[in-house]
Amino acid sequence: MTASARMAVLLFFGWLVLSPSWAQEQVLPAPGEVLTLPIAGSVDALKQQAVYLPIDQAPDTLDSLFFFEGFMPWQQRWEASAPPLWLRLHLNSPIDARNDWLLKIKRRYFPQLELLVLDPASGQMQRHSLGLDNYMPGEVSAQDYIIPLGLQAGQERIVLMRVETLQQSLSSLVMSLEDELTFKRNQNTQRWAFGLYFGSVIALLIYNLTLYLNLRSPGHRMYVIAISSVLLFMSMDSGLLQSWLPDVLRQKELSVYIAAAALMMATSMLFFQVFAQTRKLIPRLHRLIAVISSLLLILMAIVLVVPQAWTSWLAPGTQAVISLATLVLLGSSLYGAIKGSSASMVFFIAWLAFLLGSILRSLVAIEWLVRMPIAEYFVYIGSVMEAMILALGLSYRVGQLRMQRNRAEREQLKAMALANMDPLTGAYNRRFFDSYLAGILDPDEDQSPRGALILIDIDYFKETNDQFGHDAGDAVLQALVKRSQNELRATDVLCRLGGDEFAVILSSLEEESALEVAERLHRRVSRHPVMHQGNSISLSVSVGVLSPLSLGMDEAVAIRSADHALYAAKRAGRNQVKVYESPMPAI
User: Fold this and answer.
1) Phi, psi of 99 (to 5 degrees)
2) 453 and 399 in one domain?
3) What secondary structure does DSSP assign to 372-439, as a single string?
């Protein structure tokens, strides 16, 4: 999964670098003159070729405005500060132009952005409104609004644009012209690029959703939520989602875009809290992150509910909170990394990749960096890198947690073994015997009798200790356990009750009777002497058998009955097997 995502990113880079949509250099006329377009391609420096008129100096009627002579040429100072303006472009398509031309305007928040496109020959006029006060949905492609001019070969169009920006400057107004075939070719490139991006991120999303459904990990759950919100925002940012929106939301497209940005930031903060365990690591910053993420969710809801005209002041406010959240996330993750949290370091690197992509695209948009085909996709490259880094970090962290859990389970099993095993012989101890026997006899477990109880006692064990020493006695005990285990099934249980007394619980009786198993054990244990430090120590055992173990039988009664059989073997001369026989009831 991760390898395929890496390959997709490499293809993504390669396709975009080889993209044929480099801007063509144009020799443009002086501002105010008719701008004759090339046969095909694109024209970028439109702001400098347009003429301008402050709104308060405009004539009363639109008809006179199209040909008003009071328009002024472009002034560089308007990049820093500009009043609301009318902008005019007079465009001419040459006779040999191959197709229609489109006006592209970079998507920004415009309180007022109204376009009037006049055909001087017919007098027909088109109107488009892309401002917050009166938004009329049009075509959106990636970062651009697309305005069809209906400008065929040999025709002219006069474009009037009323523009007012939130920044009170024209720095955010970026326009270009593109012929229809060039636009479609570039749009195909965009589709391939977006397909690689969304395919890679969706693959990571499905992979982590599958892990969550199997592991129920809070980290994977929040990753799925956060990346889903990133996909929602990127779908709006790329212009792919707009055509799928219902009419009620399409009319509030800009509000939906702002709400998606707020949701993406809020869920990213919530993911960081879970991923980096900020409650324990940085408790004060954890509370700050919780407050900001809650504020973003509230702003998201407000933006979706209020009229879009309110977005003119809600948008800057929401953007300010998003900027603050970005700084808090970067600072918190860096601080957590300094404190030794590998998860915080992973998040810092991932978030920085996404942020750098956004910054680079913004710098190109405001022409601080050279415009290039790949610039439009910087934020998507940063986003897919963020998703991959977080997925890798999450997988590594889950792997660490699994190793810790496995280590804890091994330690727990080891502790259980120490609590239930006889350290000398390796057989189960009396504690385990009592618990296991109780389970065998529990009437709620089954409805049929099963198993048997065999007690084993070493003959003349005290004499062996006295003659050869306690080390030799220990060797005899160990030999008995080893020989017995070689004869028993995996489901049977051998326990040392204490001293030289052992018990075997047969879990079931199928092919052999309990007596046959006991006799086979007796032969295996007693067949050969035990060799210890050059001494040959004879080993014989007396065996008592209780069969079958009846469900509901009292444990003490079962042990006492098998003990009766054992002592019967001892009284009969030892080194033999006896089966418990119930006394005949009195008549």
Assistant:
1) -170, -175
2) no
3) -GGGGGHHHHHHHHHHHHHHHHHHHHHHHHHHHHHHHHHHHHHHHHHHHB-TTT-SB-HHHHHHHHHH
Tokens of 9: 């990113």
Tell me, yes or no, whether 237 and 147 share the same domain: no
CA distance 156 to 34: 9
- The partner residues of 353 in beta bridges, in order of sequence, read none
Q: Which amino acid type is present at position 527?
A: R
Reduce the DSSP state of residue 267 to 3 states and report it.
helix
My answer on whether 518 and 374 are in the same domain is: no
For position 242, what pLDDT does the model report? 81
Whether 9 and 385 have beta carbons less than 8 Å apart is answered as yes
What is the count of structural domains for the chain?
Answer: 3
Residues 6+ apart with CB under 8 A from 350: 385, 386, 387, 389, 390, 393
Residue 212 lies in a domain: no
3-state helix, strand and coil shares in percent for the chain, rounded to the nearest 5: 55, 15, 30
CA distance 507 to 524: 20
**Positive or negative CA dihedral for 292, 296, 297, 302?**
positive
State whether 179 and 239 are in the same domain. Answer: no
Q: Name 456's bridge partners.
A: 502, 543
Q: Which residues pair with 36 in a beta bridge?
A: 92
Question: What pLDDT is recorded for position 587?
Answer: 41
Cβ atoms of 256 and 236 closer than 8 Å: yes
In a domain, 188, yes or no: no
Asked if 578 contacts 569 with a C-beta cutoff of 8 angstroms, the reply is: yes
Question: Looking at the structure, do residues 402 and 523 belong to the same domain, yes or no?
Answer: no
Write out the H or E segment, with its range, that includes residue 253. helix 253-275
Helix pair angle (218-237, 378-420), 10° resolution: 170
Query: Hey, which bits of 222-336 come out as E strands?
Result: none
Helices 430-441 and 378-420 sit at what angle, rounded to 10 degrees? 100
Residues 227 and 115 in one domain: no
Domain that holds residue 332: 217-407
Q: Are residues 284 and 161 in the same domain?
A: no
Q: 303: helix, coil or strand?
A: helix
Domain match, 264 and 171 both: no
**Residue 422 near residue 428 (C-beta atoms within 8 A):** yes
Low pLDDT (below 70) residues in the chain: 1-32, 364-373, 375, 401, 413, 417, 444-450, 510-511, 583-587
Name residues whose C-beta falls within 8 Å of residue 465's C-beta, 6 or more positions apart in sequence.
Answer: 472, 473
At 32 the pLDDT is 59
Amino acid in position 313: W
